[in-house]
Amino acid sequence: MGRIDAGTTPTDEKAIIAAAEQALADISAVRQAVSDVIFGQESVVEQTLLAVLSGGHALLVGVPGLAKTKLVSTLGTVLGLTSNRIQFTPDLMPSDILGSEVMDQDEGGRRSFRFVPGPVFTQLLMADEINRASPRTQSALLQAMQEYHVTVAGAAHDLPRPFHVLATQNPLEQEGTYPLPEAQLDRFLMQVDVPYPEMAAERRILLETTGARDASARPAITMERLAAIQALIRQMPVPESVVDAILALVRAARPGHGNARIDEVVSWGPGPRAGQALMLCARARALYQGRLAPSIDDVRALAEPILQHRMALTFSARAEGTSIRDVIAGLVTPKAG
Predict the structure, then answer these.
(1) Which of 54, 78, 161, 193 is most solvent-facing, going by the fewest CB within 10 Å?
(2) Over the stretch 213-262, which tens digit does the pLDDT of each residue have?
(3) Which residue spans of the chain are classified as CATH 3.40.50.300?
(4) What does the pLDDT look like over 30-84, one tens digit per residue?
């Protein structure tokens, strides 16, 4: 077990341990309920759940047909959250997401404006193919993702809590896609890459999804229970060695910090929000795996999904075929000797 932060009494420690054991049982139930519907893709499911358990948003990237949309809708049911889906298209407008004001007229002829909430007013928002819409529409989500309210016609409207955006994105090489603005990418706690399924999982997909009955998601926990687990994760102690590892990793990924290789291949690196994401997700990963405190291995495992969308390569690095994943792998691989 990692150290308990200063000021934590033995009673507090026992309470945290008891709460963690209950949370572990709940997380296990969530994992089982998801696996009844989503076959294989354990890493994708884990990373997406970690983002939600940490209270953040996730961007799922992969070609069409890999069950990204199905995973998001399944999580809404399993976690007991209200959910809405927005299909992003080139003609989608910001008001289609946020809502708009309409004019009402009463029996006396008096006119007034009434706000009609858009689909963003939910607890789990599925932003499907987010990079098919224009940058202006993509940016409509920015305030909601960071500030948990939206402003329409000068008036602020609070969003339900908890509020999570799980967006799906097609690879940028596909036709009709727009790159997400860097400021919006930074709002996503993680970028989860969705690969093709393994052979055994794809065989199960063929057998179980083409018959007379298809598996459907079932609730595993309530929204209130999810909120309690999210609060518990923020109370988990983090050893100083893990804090130091997070700082070292994030700072090493920035050009101008003494790493000649990074100076050569990275044009801009992760900001402080990346360190915050690593702190939260490392705690969530520890709890997900039945531990009471995160380790440096958690930081290494989460480096790619948390850093890859917060870094950009130089033109020369891209021309040489260097990838962000290669750069991050070089930062987290323990050096020999």
Answers:
(1) 161
(2) 666 778 888 899 999 999 989 988 899 999 999 999 999 888 887 778 88
(3) 1-237
(4) 988 888 888 777 888 899 999 999 999 999 988 777 778 888 888 888 998 988 8
Range scoring the smallest mean pLDDT among 88-97, 170-179, 188-197: 170-179
Q: Where in the chain is the domain with CATH 1.10.8.80?
A: 238-337
Fold classification of 238-337 is Helicase, Ruva Protein; domain 3 (1.10.8)
State the Cα–Cα distance between residues 229 and 235, nearest whole angstrom.
10
DSSP 196-222: PPPHHHHHHHHHHSSSS--------S-
Q: Return the structure tokens found at 276.
A: 């915050």
Amino acid at 202: E
Structure confidence at residue 300 (pLDDT): 92
Nearest CA among 179, 292, 318 for reference residue 237: 292
Reduced to 3 states (helix: H, G, I; strand: E, B; else coil), residue 86 is strand
For residue 214, which amino acid is it?
Answer: D
SS3 of 14-80: the string is HHHHHHHHHHHHHHHHHHHHHHCCCCCCHHHHHHHHHHHHCCCCEEEECCCCCCHHHHHHHHHHHCC
Domain spanning 1-237: which CATH class is it, in words? Answer: alpha beta
Tokens standing for residue 147: 């500030």
Enter the tokens of residue 217: 């998601």
